[in-house]
Amino acid sequence: MTFESLGLSSPILKAIEEKGYKKPSIIQEKSIPLVLKGKDVLASAQTGTGKTAGFTLPILERLSKNTSKGKRPIKALILTPTRELAAQILENVKEYSINLNIESTVIFGGVNQNPQKRKLKSGVDILVATPGRLLDLEQQRALSLSNVDILVLDEADRMLDMGFLRDIQKVMALLPKKRQNLLFSATFSKSIKKLASEFMHEPILVEAAPENSTVDKITQKVIRVDKIRKTDLLIKLISEGKWNQVLVFTRTKHGANRLCKKLEQKNISAAAIHGNKTQGARTKALKGFKDNNIRVLVATDIAARGLDIPLLPHVVNYELPNIPEDYVHRIGRTGRAGAKGEALSLVCVDENDYLKGIEKLVGIKIDSREIDGFEVDPSIPAEDPNPMRKGRGGRNGGKSKSNNRNGKKPNNKRRRY
Ligand code: AMP
């Protein structure tokens, strides 16, 4: 399959060639022809699958056929949950439209509105936006959505998780009834299906299963370990495995900071990205990580949303997410672009219910094991009564009653498994 055979014309093909893409990804193969035909598409895709080009390329193709003369009304609206993702999408739109007479811009909150208003006034064909700023500027009459032909909801599950449902519905009400709708989501929860049924017209489900095929390429493992020994175990894994680029997820911002500090104390360079960090600090951390100056990037789920983190061999769930879908997002950061990846989850006894929810969602029982010297010790309380107590890693530390060298399962009945 080639991009040419998908029905894209030469200015776009040239731009793709300049980007160095050799052939369409699965999601592109499936979605591009449908979008070109004007169909509503409900696609299962997460960051890393090439989904952005999957909707952007055919949109450009369609718009390039009838670019308006004079003032340009907004013809395509791409809604995304986060600023980072919005900025990344615009960057892609610009690259793919380099040989076309198409104007595009991005609007999101947290920055001065005036440059955004000026650009909108000059006329844009494609607008990438986060919901809040979009509604704000619409209310101020700085933009009109009455000519939108194509709507894209990107990372729709994220938008719902972040509480954007009302805003999305408000945006819908401002759009012409007759339009093409594209919805991209990493997971298809009930709420996504419900949302889709509310506004999409006979959508075609594109289950090229990038999500599943990604998951197939990822070796998933659970390592059972006591909570208080997770940090020591992580340090051992990073050091002994000589991991040079690892993305580690924690559940809380505070936890991310704390873990970073501990890694740094062991001379493992680390940076945290989470909601309390400024945009500048997040960008700097991500750049350091991409440039291989930082070995470990510790992230919370929200901060990692939509980030174009490069191909990673290792993703570690230092703590499991309480929303099973977040697990799929997290592990999707490894095993990209055809490479094999490994997703390790350090799971303590408190997290069993989370693990069950995740296994139900991904449809497999994740291989679970213990690491020598870090076996689960039922004599260690689930919650550490003394946070000052040091982890008991080391050669023989903590093997006591739960030693399962003989292959026997430790008796964990007393604990909440
Ligand atoms: P996305 O899933 O849209 O965030 O894209 C993930 C990464 O894949 C981006 O860095 C894209 O530039 C890249 N990409 C998209 N399509 C292709 C393709 N057909 N071949 C190679 N790389 C691609």
Task: Give an overview in words.
The protein is an alpha/beta fold and 417 residues long. The protein has 2 domains: 4-207, Rossmann fold (3-Layer(aba) Sandwich), CATH 3.40.50.300; 218-369, 3-Layer(aba) Sandwich (Rossmann fold). It contains 16 helices and 14 strands. It has helices at residues 10-19, 26-36, 51-65, 83-96, 113-122, 131-139, 156-161, 165-174, 190-199, 210-217, 230-241, 253-265, 279-290, 301-304, 324-331, 352-362; strands spanning 41-44, 76-79, 104-107, 126-129, 150-153, 180-185, 204-206, 218-224, 246-249, 270-273, 296-299, 314-317, 341-347, 367-369. It has a 7-stranded parallel sheet, sandwiched between helices. Strands 10-11-9-12-13-8-14 form a 7-stranded parallel sheet, sandwiched between helices. The structure holds adenosine monophosphate (AMP). The site of adenosine monophosphate (AMP) has 12 residues, from helix 3.
Structural class: alpha/beta
Written as H for each helix and E for each strand, in order along the chain, the element string is: HHEHEHEHEHEHHEHEHEHEHEHEHEHEHE
Distance between the termini: 48 Å
Strand content: 5-15%
Morphology call: elongated
Distinct small molecules bound, one entry per kind: adenosine monophosphate
